[in-house]
Amino acid sequence: MGGAYDMWVTPLLAMLVAQVLKPLLLMLRLRRWDWKLMRQSGGMPSSHTALVVALVTELWLREGGSDPVLAIAMFVALIVMYDAAGVRWQTGRHAAVLNQLLRDLQGRKDLFQPGEDAAAQPESAPIQRLNIVKTPWWLIDWPVLNEHVGHKPTEVLGGCVVGVVVALSVHF
C-alpha cells in the first residue's frame, strides 16, 4: 500500500483481525462456535490493543523512532493496554459479583416488603427488610451486567502480536 492511507487502514484492519480471531480461537480451544464474540469486548486477543499497537508499529516503520507523534501514540497505547488489563478487567470482575448478588436477591422476596414499618421488625433480625414504597426498576428487571469487558495480560499480549503482525504485513 503506502502513504497516509496505511495510517488509517492498518489499525482498523488489526482491530478487525483481532475480532475475527476471537471466535476462531474459541473454536480451536473448545470445539464450539460463537459468532457473538465478534461483537463483544474482552477475550483473546484484545482488539483495542491490536489497534493501538498497529498504529504505533506503522508510525515507527514510517517515521522512525524520533518522531514526537510516535511518543504520543506509544503513551496512548500503554494507557489502553493498562486500562484493558487493569481497570476494565476489574470492572468485569465487579460485574460478575453484582450479577451473582442479583441472582441471590432475586430469590429472596422476604427482603422486599413494600410499606412495612422498619420499627415493627425485631432488632435481632440479621438483615433489615427494605422499606420500598415503589419497587425500583433494578429489582424488577434484574439486569445482567457484562462480565467480559476487560482482558487478562495474555489477551493484551495477543493483541500486541496481532497489531505488530498486521502492521508489518500491510507495510511490507
How is this structure best summarized?
The protein has one domain (5-107, 151-171). The protein is elongated, with a radius of gyration of 23 Å. By secondary structure, the protein is mainly α.
How would you describe this structure in keywords?
mainly alpha, 6 helices
Element string (H = helix, E = strand): HHHHHH
Sequence stretches where pLDDT stays below 50 over 5 or more residues: none
Radius of gyration: 23 Å
N/C terminus separation:
8 Å
| Number of DSSP-assigned strands | 0
Number of helices: 6
Q: Can you tell me the number of structural domains?
A: 1
Q: Helical content, roughly?
A: 55-70%
Output mean pLDDT. 79
**What summary fits the major beta sheet?**
none
C-alpha geometry = elongated
Structural class: mainly alpha
Estimate the strand proportion: under 5%
